[in-house]
Design brief:
Layout (H helix, E strand, L loop, with lengths): L2 H16 L2 E5 L16 E5 L5 E7 L7 H7 L8 E7 L3 H10 L5 E8 L2 E6 L2
Parallel strand pairs: 3-4, 4-5
Antiparallel strand pairs: 1-2, 2-3, 5-6
Helix pairs in contact: 2-3
Length: 123
């Protein structure tokens, strides 16, 4: 399993224990749950209404690039929330990339441990 796919799965497990949503993943080239014709890493669905609450993209040190930030535009400024998950210590870089690409997103940083993912909002 790639570093990215491991991060997707561990962040999804964290979301399942901390959020009142149903969490679906699309790791790698796997297509489990589509939103607006795209396959974001994380799709969070309201349990009662069944509507998309928010989608998430998970980045690694290697994938946190301007090219990736341009792809975030597909999820920004929609009727649902958009979160980007970046490795701990990458908040400033992620905020700059999002700003430069005119992307509105909640930026969160993660640390992967043997017990799972620890996720904090970037402030």
């Amino acid at each position: 399993m790639s570093k990215h796919d491991k991060a997707v799965e561990l962040i999804a497990a964290w979301l399942r224990t901390t959020s009142p949503v149903e969490v679906h993943t699309n790791p790698g080239r796997t297509k489990n749950h589509e939103v607006d014709g795209r396959w974001p890493d994380l799709v969070c669905i309201e349990k009662i209404s069944g509507s998309v609450a928010y989608v998430g993209e998970v980045e690694t040190e290697e994938s946190l690039t301007a090219k990736e930030a341009e792809q975030w535009k597909a999820y920004s400024w929609k009727g649902y929330g958009f979160s980007v998950f970046v490795p701990a210590g990458c908040c400033r870089e992620a905020r700059k990339l999002a700003s430069d690409a005119d992307v509105h997103a909640d930026i969160n940083e993660y640390t992967l441990t043997d017990e799972g993912a620890q996720v904090l909002a970037c402030v």
